[in-house]
Amino acid sequence: MSEREQIPMDVVFVGAGPANLAAALHLKGEIKKHDEMVEKGFKSGKVIGDLEIAIVEKGPFVGAHILSGGVMDPIAIRELMPDFLAQGCPVDSVVTEDAFWYLTEKGGINAPLVPPPLKNKGKYIVSLSKVCEWLGEKCEAAGINIFPEFPAAEVLYNENDAVIGVRTGDKGIDKDGHRKPNFEPGVDLLAKVTVLGEGSRGSLAKQVTARLGLDEGKEPQVFSIGVKELWEVPAANFAEGKVVHTLGFPSDTRTYGGGWIYGMKDNVVSIGYVTGLDYEDPMIDPHAEFQKFKTNPKVAEVLKGGKMIKYGAKTINAGGYFTMPKLYADGVLIVGDSGSFLNGQRIKGIHTAMKSGMLAAETIVGAFEHQDFSSKTLKHYDEKVNLSWIYDELHPVRNFHAAFQKGRWSALLNTGLQFLTRGLAWGFMPKEHHIAGHERMGKLIDNGNWKIENGKRYADLKFDKELTFDKVTDVFHAGVAHDEDQPSHLHVLDTEICATRCAEEYGNPCQRFCPAAVYEMEENVESGRKELKVNFSNCVHCKTCDVADPYQIINWVTPEGGGGPNYKGM
Ligand code: SF4
Q1: In this structure, what DSSP letter does residue 499 have?
Q2: Ligand 1 and 543: CB distance under 6 A
Q3: d(CA 203, CA 442)
């Protein structure tokens, strides 16, 4: 007999990000609208009534694990709540100026024209963490149950493989797997519809996709990682409302990468760098790429005399339309970054995430109206996505990221052609189209058709703790906390590979691609060889290791609830 409590709900949302918060709020509003129309006789059908709706969130509060650049296109929040500003949505600044810098090692130029997809004038610079915290308050005021510190650890299925809810993680297990005095088993939250909005590389979305084959016939997902710091800088350094995007230094022409600098209020700047996790050189370190980016004289000038105040990192689904999984199955819908709704060309995904959640909500209303929670009804979500502005926005840029797998110059040419032809022209695409990032990583012993720099890439990079920071210092500024007396949530399925094949073939790239110094190869005095040490308590939940490991033997699972970074205000 299971000792777990079973809590029946109607709809369970996994993850309190922009997609699910918008979805839950919209669901409440749409049910109310539906019921009023039926009661007044303006619509046929049945009254749905009050639904039990829950949002489970692994962080200690809504917004704790939310990280974005972040410029928000308000198109979706305006549809959700036309008076969002009057209702107190905490936007930081309005974008007043766009710039595009092409950087070299010693300087850079201010491009005379900003590429149209990177024009953001009139949009909002936000702390997405704050916006989500505020949306969470709106949800609670609308009667939606929010459970922070409840990591959804497993998907529950019935005998026909329909999703029937989620199991949350146990609390109070020690590092050896034994129960501590504060042990509490997770609960089974049963739902007619479960909505997965866990962000990029959601751990339950990964489970469901593998079990139900939701990626069959789709291109492999391609990820990037964004590494970000918040800085307080002297007022004259950078104007509030200014948005800069950069190309060039420090990325080489074979590696997808670019930076951003956004001017927020109170002399704070959001600065960050995106590196494609489909790089070829195994010596690349995305955190070091970001630190190098800051040493460019044009960028360093912005930060001169300033102080770094916060740090974070997160993967981004960059693959676009062709890499979207099937978005529905019996009892389940996938929204937001978990469903690959990000527009890679604009590097924007908050608006598409929110809209996907709202379309999921409208689909759920139909499912309750007809009391059918199978694919037959839930497939309407897919139809709604393809009839909405999401399709109009994502379909023309469907080849954007794949073009970069051929290198920067052919990609830029392609981007121009795609812009003119709404995505039809893609003559410079790699023949195989998208290739999964981990499959593109070159081996140290095999220089392939380009030269791997074998460790020289960061020879000049010093961490002076004024402009540039090592990973441990940065992680301190991410406010990360995990109880150390718990099992590691980073499951390395075969550590023998790390000590042997991976060391020889790739030089253990986990030590570099992790932006939080979680993985170390440490000398074992008995065996005399280097073996893997996992400092899981540093983990900022970016999921890079889960996607970038060339052997795909790292599985990120949810740690005990409440653990992880604290991105409040990021
Ligand atoms: Fe990111 Fe994995 Fe490192 Fe955690 S361990 S910070 S998920 S790369």
Answers
A1: I
A2: yes
A3: 27
Residue 554: half-sphere exposure toward Cβ, Cα within 13 Å: 27
Q: Which atom of ligand 1 is nearest to the CA of 514?
A: 8
Question: What value does the mean pLDDT of the chain take?
Answer: 93
Please report the DSSP string for 520-553 in residue order.
EEEE-TTT-SEEEEE-GGG-----HHHHH-TT--
Give the model confidence (pLDDT) of 451-506 as tens digits.
555 567 899 999 999 999 999 999 999 999 999 999 999 999 999 999 999 999 99
Q: Calculate how far, in angstroms, residue 532's C-alpha sits from the geometric centre of ligand 1.
A: 14
What are the structure tokens assigned to 314, written together? 């997160």
Q: What is the pLDDT of residue 455?
A: 63
Rounded CA-CA distance 156/190 in Å is 8
Structure tokens at 386: 């393809």
- Averaged pLDDT for residues 13-26: 98
Q: Is the pTM of this model over 0.70?
A: yes
**Start-to-end C-alpha separation, the chain:** 44
Comparing CA positions, the residue from 509, 563, 561, 521 lying closest to residue 540 is 563
Which helix (H) or strand (E) covers residue 476, if one does? helix 471-476
| Mutate-to-test residue for ligand 1 from 544, 553, 555, 567, highest number of ligand atoms within 8 A of CB | 544
Hey, what are 108's tokens?
A: 């850079």
Helical pair 128-141 and 18-39, crossing angle rounded to 10 deg:
30
Question: Rounded to an integer, what distance in angstroms lies between the CA atom of residue 20 and that of residue 25?
Answer: 8
The pLDDT value given to residue 228: 98
Length of the chain: 570
Average pLDDT over residues 232-244: 98
Ligand 1 close to Cβ of residue 545 (< 6 A): yes
Pair 295, 376: CB distance under 8 Å? no
Closest to 317 measured CA to CA, from 196, 202, 208, 432: 202
Bridge partners of 231? Answer: 269, 308
Q: Taking residues 138-162, report their average pLDDT.
A: 98
pLDDT of the residue at 450: 47
Residue 480 has which token pair?
């990360």
List, in sequence order, every residue forming a beta bridge with 167; answer none if it has no partner: 154, 188
Question: How far, in Å, are 66, 305, 415 from residue 466 at the CA level?
Answer: 26, 9, 37
With beta carbons less than 8 A apart as the criterion, state whether 222 and 39 touch.
no
Please give the average per-residue pLDDT across 35-50, as a whole number.
Answer: 95
